[in-house]
Design a protein that fits this description.
Two copies of one chain form a homodimer. Chain A is built from 18 helices and 19 strands.
Chain lengths: ~500, ~500
Amino acid sequence: MLRLKRIGISTSRENVAFLSRACTSYRAAAFEGQEKVEVVANGHRLVATLNLVNDPAILPPDCLGLSEQAFARFGLAEGTAVRLDHPHPPKSREGLHAKIAGRELDETCFRAIIEDIAHHRYGKVEVAAFLVACGSFMTTAETLALTRAMADAGETLHWPGTPLVVDKHCIGGIPGNRTSMIVVPIVAAHGLPMPKTSSRAITSPAGTADTMEVLANVEIDLPTMRAIVAEAGGCLVWGGHVKLSPADDVLISVERPLNIDTREQMVASILSKKKAAGSTHLVIDMPVGPSAKVRTADDAARLRKLFEYVGDAIGLSLRVTISDGTQPVGRGIGPVLEARDVMAVLENRADAPADLRERSLALAGRILEFDPALRGGAGLARARALLDSGAALAKMQQIMALQGPPPRLARLGGLSREIVADQDGRVLAIDCYRMARIARLAGAPFDPGAGIDLLKKVGDPVQAGEPLYRIHAEREVEFRFACGLAAEASGYAVNGNGKGQN
Amino acid sequence: MLRLKRIGISTSRENVAFLSRACTSYRAAAFEGQEKVEVVANGHRLVATLNLVNDPAILPPDCLGLSEQAFARFGLAEGTAVRLDHPHPPKSREGLHAKIAGRELDETCFRAIIEDIAHHRYGKVEVAAFLVACGSFMTTAETLALTRAMADAGETLHWPGTPLVVDKHCIGGIPGNRTSMIVVPIVAAHGLPMPKTSSRAITSPAGTADTMEVLANVEIDLPTMRAIVAEAGGCLVWGGHVKLSPADDVLISVERPLNIDTREQMVASILSKKKAAGSTHLVIDMPVGPSAKVRTADDAARLRKLFEYVGDAIGLSLRVTISDGTQPVGRGIGPVLEARDVMAVLENRADAPADLRERSLALAGRILEFDPALRGGAGLARARALLDSGAALAKMQQIMALQGPPPRLARLGGLSREIVADQDGRVLAIDCYRMARIARLAGAPFDPGAGIDLLKKVGDPVQAGEPLYRIHAEREVEFRFACGLAAEASGYAVNGNGKGQN
């Protein structure tokens, strides 16, 4: 018997168990080849990846350590007597191998795999194998089965008495594309319920939840969220309090650092979350551009078909809009700068970024046309009227008031540097991926005031020495990371003599 | 700046860096989304997966910890000032993504990927993604390119003045198939040089190195190995002292626990190691059976073609022999028991397992026919003569004497239990995978005396209550693991009334 010990090491989402090499009850090396153990006590079982410990200060020989997340999941007190077992392979293992071998799986197999993933019975390596195997071969029927399995694996929300629950989702990759914070107030002002839950950034410089948190509290529990939606018709909260499609969080945690993005996984990820959130009508914003997630019109068409097929099959009324993904939207990248742009649009200020305004109106117009009472084609005009009249701003202020003040005052980062053009010419292109990366290195979203302020957009004339954008940061080390990356390549292509700056 | 600290945690082959959440120089969370950091000092750079630490007893806030293997690889003393950087993506990243996306790679791409893997610049997740992507689509030209890249990535051996360097390799999966220890003395007794390096078991109950270690020292450095081969014409040593095809070790460390085995990877793995070891002629033993690695004659034929294609292209004279893979070979499974069987064959004892003897003779005969001086078809008779005359035994004794005595005396495990038939009938099949697993759980190869002694083989008549095999173990906890697994399903199918035991 071993005594359970909590080890103060955070191993991301993977369960890690620690066993001393000097352990006398179990031979650590015998578990090493297979890499996994099953920790057992009082009916609790937990499968974990095994690390061996040589330092009694970290773990005494008669103890079994669990990483922070694994300890929390196991749910027993330190000192509890535990024993080790060789792990029983997860039920879905055969299905996983069939998928790796290139075979088509049925819905039962996907349910078993997703259930094991949601319960953290897969390690990172197995999750990666599943993702790559799905990416290499997956039928539309399998994408549908996967979506259903993911939607059913966690909590599901229902909105009784509300036949129409609308939502929007952008497939991402375009910095500054913060349309949700403009669309929600417009749609709610019209009277369509839009209970928006958003994520925080994982590898990007800002998620909608991070940006909204500059203006208001976003950590709202479910009863409060229901009350806010009942009163205001909409909300903009962080989705982390509701465990919608938990397998998706695990898949994303492996997919993002690896930077693999498959169409099928994207569709299953987005639609399973929306279905579980109780949405009935959904508009998907799909930016297309050379540095966006979707790069060509052909890709966009195929992805749209897949969204439509799965959406129809799971009972979601869904429309896909293709948008310009050739450069960042608005001027700010990072929570504080993006919140500034959003408020400028809602306040109808003269200096508000026109592209953010027009994209938001187009999306809101599309959503408003889900309203049977609205005349076909009248959505855009109605959206514009609600924005121009100040109704959307008033709705946003109501939502902010109901959600409460932000947890801390966020200010623009005090360290700043301008990156300048090295030749005269015209801005030909801006690399979305690179701008996001620079803003992230500058500290966004952890410092909400870190990020990038774009001073030139595609088509703008520039002179050599004129600033293209400004980097903001709060901390010296991160300021250097960001400036270093920008110095390697600015992310801007300027055509003067035909050769682009980069 | 952070001070370098060695953390007494062994994380298998993956580099892991530890950073305190309370660190003031770097914001731990900013690195978390991407999962990786680059540790930099005095021109040394190391890419590592990041774990965050909440316990100052494990890691003070101003330190950067490295796991044992990562610390050794980084090669600097504790206390050295280090800084962190965002990792530059490995050069081969684009190639990896192209492979994941299902594209064909050229040799340059494979060389870059294998170079990064051999230098531990990939995490487990990336290695898994590479393996699964290769498994889902890979041309024969790609398999060849991968083999070349792997062979060239590490050390290579040359045997000057020896135009013919022979070797054999079994693709594995059949417990007890310890033919190398019989083939080497026969072939060396004939006069063909056979410098055999073998591996220790990773997930199996014994590798050839583990079994040979019951009889002699196997941890031999390269100069000593050369001297032994010069004197005796052969050796049976552990390959770990020579860094042949180091990327293969990394690939195997991810592949085995995940239990994915692709044909292409197997060919590249085996042939790259043989090529790097300086072999010129190779016989491959390919057992085919329902619980072996190769399950059907069709699979065997396709795999044989792939071995021949790649072998020819890299200048290895190669012959593939298909053998019976329907049950374990010999009677013992586990180092001590297998060494017993091997010596019984070499000593021409009446109770020597006939199947192990015949398989070894067939393989040795094939190898002997590489000798231009030997008449075509005369290999088997020559092998039999060398074994029957005691020449092979004498050669084995010479090799053992040259390698030196074993590091410790290995005895059969004192705990034992017989697993009995539950009905009268005849043994229909023995599950190789399950027998290996039971022997492994019993403690093999860590306790060389742990394992399984098979008392019945396929075709033998049995009566209800008669023992099928005996489990041996040294430690109580492992004895229970093995007996528990055997109680769930014995691994034997006995057909009495038409229904098999399992």
